[in-house]
């Protein structure tokens, strides 16, 4: 894959993604020596814990201002001043000011759970692949539960990919009552399309957390957070069993790119047209948390 192209919902045009750590990523997944290092070290939790420890060091504060400038982030959205972050990891899982991500008010709508690049599958039984035609992961492997996979075999799925440049807190897409988060352990491969085009099954085998959200509008919605290289920590901030509103924070990722997946019961959601059209082209749609992604049917 030479370039990662996505469609920006707001600018109404295609964009080429600026990849943080692009050279290292392409070396790791595109060369023999890189793939050897991937197998021996990079995919392992120990490597991500070490990298996370590095990003917690006070000296990493000097990376923050150049990062903001290079990737054109809007620091006026941050709750904290740039100079107040003690290290890069604190900046990475920063909070945003109230109102920075308005939540769509329509009671029948469901919203994107995170800032990022999104792909949808209206009917999992009819999916011809995500990033590459014909390439799709196994649902039972993803969920770690064959019976649950059978219940959602014709359900609808949204994959949201967060880049290192994105706001890295994830939110509830609809109002409801969440159950506990169940950890499913696994390796920590990259979830960048450069890696996923080689092996889509990364999404179904990486370390991940599964939460069932009971909703009045959409039924039982499955919410999953997927770790990745340099993302050893998926931090949940919600309280199991306590009612949540649409757009409430669910948790955050520590350093690195990562993904979330939502799976809806069959026939309960109609995805927005721009999301469907771009997904049919195996092209991600960029949209922000709180914006409408579909409506109940």
UniProtKB/TrEMBL annotation:
Its EC number(s): 4.1.1.65
GO annotation terms (biological process): phospholipid biosynthetic process
Keywords annotated in UniProt: Decarboxylase, Lyase, Pyruvate, Zymogen
Molecular functions per Gene Ontology: phosphatidylserine decarboxylase activity
Transcription regulation among keywords: no
Pfam families: PS_Dcarbxylase
Enzyme class, spelled out: lyase
Membrane-spanning parts: none
PANTHER family to which the protein is assigned, alphabetical: PHOSPHATIDYLSERINE DECARBOXYLASE (PTHR10067), PHOSPHATIDYLSERINE DECARBOXYLASE PROENZYME 2 (PTHR10067:SF17)
Protein name: Phosphatidylserine decarboxylase proenzyme
Natural source organism: Rosistilla carotiformis
Gene name for this UniProt entry: psd
């Amino acid at each position: 894959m030479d370039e990662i192209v996505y469609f920006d919902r707001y600018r109404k045009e295609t964009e080429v993604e600026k990849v943080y750590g692009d050279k290292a990523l392409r070396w790791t997944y595109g060369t023999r020596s890189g793939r050897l290092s991937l197998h021996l070290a990079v995919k392992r939790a120990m490597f991500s814990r070490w990298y996370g420890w590095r990003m917690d060091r006070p000296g990493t504060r000097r990376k923050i201002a150049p990062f903001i400038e290079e990737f054109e982030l809007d620091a006026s959205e941050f709750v904290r001043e740039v100079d107040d972050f003690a290290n890069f990891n604190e900046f990475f899982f920063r909070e945003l000011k109230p109102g920075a991500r308005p939540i769509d008010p329509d009671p029948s709508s469901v919203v994107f759970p995170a800032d990022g690049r999104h792909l949808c599958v209206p009917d999992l039984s009819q999916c011809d692949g995500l990033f590459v035609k014909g390439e799709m992961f196994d649902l039972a492997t993803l969920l770690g539960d064959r019976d649950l996979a059978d219940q959602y075999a014709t359900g609808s799925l949204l994959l949201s990919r967060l880049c290192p440049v994105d706001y890295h807190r994830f939110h509830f897409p609809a109002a409801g009552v969440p159950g506990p988060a169940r950890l499913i352990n696994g390796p920590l491969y990259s979830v960048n399309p450069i890696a996923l085009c080689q092996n889509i099954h990364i999404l179904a085998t990486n370390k991940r957390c599964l939460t069932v959200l009971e909703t009045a509008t959409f039924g039982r919605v499955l919410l999953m957070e997927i770790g990745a290289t340099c993302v050893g920590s998926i931090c949940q901030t919600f309280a199991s069993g306590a009612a949540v509103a649409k757009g409430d924070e669910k948790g955050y990722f520590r350093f690195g790119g990562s993904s979330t997946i939502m799976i809806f019961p069959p026939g309960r959601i109609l995805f927005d047209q721009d999301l469907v059209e771009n997904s049919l082209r195996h092209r991600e749609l960029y949209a922000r948390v709180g914006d409408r992604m579909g409506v109940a049917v």
